[in-house]
Amino acid sequence: MKSKKHELAERRQRLLDQHAEAKEALHHAQQHQAKIQDVLLYCHHVKERLSTLDMPNKCVALDALDIRVTWTPSAPLQIAGRIPIDAIVSATP
């Protein structure tokens, strides 16, 4: 009888642990999804406004995205940048 009780207690604890892990994974996935939505919204706003900017403001926008263009003769043009996710996420209400 004790071994059955012990076995059930262990199984219950394993299930509780799995539940806690699943809950934490869901929370992380929801946070990740929220960041993705923030980035998509940011990109949409940038796209909408980019065509209306004059050249100095376009330079400011490209600088904010840390856009770097590298050209080497006889090599493809390389364009790299980064989206400031931390600034985007902290700026959203």
Q: What percent of the residues sit in helical stretches (DSSP H or I)? A: over 70%
Question: What count of structural domains?
Answer: 1
Largest sheet: 2 strands, antiparallel
Distance between the termini: 56 Å
Give me the secondary-structure category: mainly alpha
Average pLDDT level: 86
Oligomer kind = single chain
Portion in beta strands: 5-15%
Determine Rg (CA atoms, Å).
Answer: 25 Å
Strands in their spatial order, largest beta sheet: 1-2
Q: What is the count of helical runs?
A: 3
Unreliable segments (pLDDT under 50, ≥5 consecutive)? none
Shape: elongated
What string gives the helices and strands in order? HHEEH
Q: How many DSSP E strands?
A: 2
Structure description:
- With 93 residues, the chain is mostly helical.
- The protein has one domain (2-91).
- It is 71% helix and 6% strand.
- The chain has three helices and two strands, in the order ααββα.
- It has helices at residues 2-50, 55-64, 85-91, and strands at residues 68-70, 78-80.
- The protein has a two-stranded antiparallel sheet with strand order 1-2.
- A hairpin with a 7-residue loop joins strand 1 and strand 2 (78-80).
- The model has no long low-confidence stretch (mean pLDDT 86).
